[in-house]
Design brief:
CATH class of the domain at 45-85 and 131-246: Mainly Alpha
Largest sheet: 2 strands, antiparallel
Distance between the termini: 38 Å
Helix content: 40-55%
Shape: extended
Strand order of the largest sheet: 1-2
Mean pLDDT: 90
CATH superfamily of the domain at 45-85 and 131-246: Cytochrome c-like domain
Amino acid sequence: MLVRVLGFLVGLGFVAVAAWSLLWGVIAYIGEPPHETVEHAFHEEAHDSRFSFDGPFGSFDRQQLQRGFQVYREVCAGCHGLSLVAFRNLHDLGYSEAEVRAIADQWPIQVPSVNPATGEPATRKAIPADRFPSPYANETAARAANNNALPPDLSLIVKAREGGAAYIESLLTGYRNPPADLPAENRPGQGLHYNPYFANLNIAMPPPLTADGQVTYADGTAATRSQMAHDVSAFLTWAAEPNLEARRAGGLFVVIFLIFVTILSYLAYKNVWGSAKRAVRITGPLDPVNMAKREAADREAGVHS
């Protein structure tokens, strides 16, 4: 009994503390509501951007993916790795075996290896089975080359950022001069650049797309800054979700299958049990059989009801 009382008092104490904390928080919020931060006031959400893979029935545009890969190769690969994608995966973009082999062989960054004769670290040209090599040997080297900023790997960047491909496109085209009313303490310092689509407004990455025609598309598409940003965002979406089309096709098949099975099960039910009458079975203390057994046991025990 004493243990129950102590347990009740301890529980009551926890409830009282929680209620007091909640009440104190509500009073503090009403008395001094949170103020909007400068980052929140000047931050802009990713603008609406349409891609061919949007929606449940969307699919990748292979020509756009090849253009996006060209932007990555010529603009982004010098600083950002793509460590979860192998050269052979470029087959999915429409490249032939010979083209994939040539891309790997001509990749400007060689793959870390070991000299078989001496056992010393070495490098070699990439082959289709290799993943895209990192432009830096390690994190220390990456920070040393970028004013202590670490360029993120782009393999999953679309899934790692709220807004996905639209955010990437907005970020790449969102560099501008700081607005006149931006407080001095929030203005970009040395080595930083103002971009309202970035979380804290100031980003260490310089504008990667600086002018129209920065790359020359093989299919003749005009390489405007917005077009290049749109294409590389689509390519990075493929890099993050290369099985997107197969996954959607599989999901559609499963939905159709479940609808078919549901209809078939309902028709089978109607055919087998539709005309059968339901019989309600009486169970429990009021069941006549149970009542008779109980009365017989009472008489045998000499109990009079």
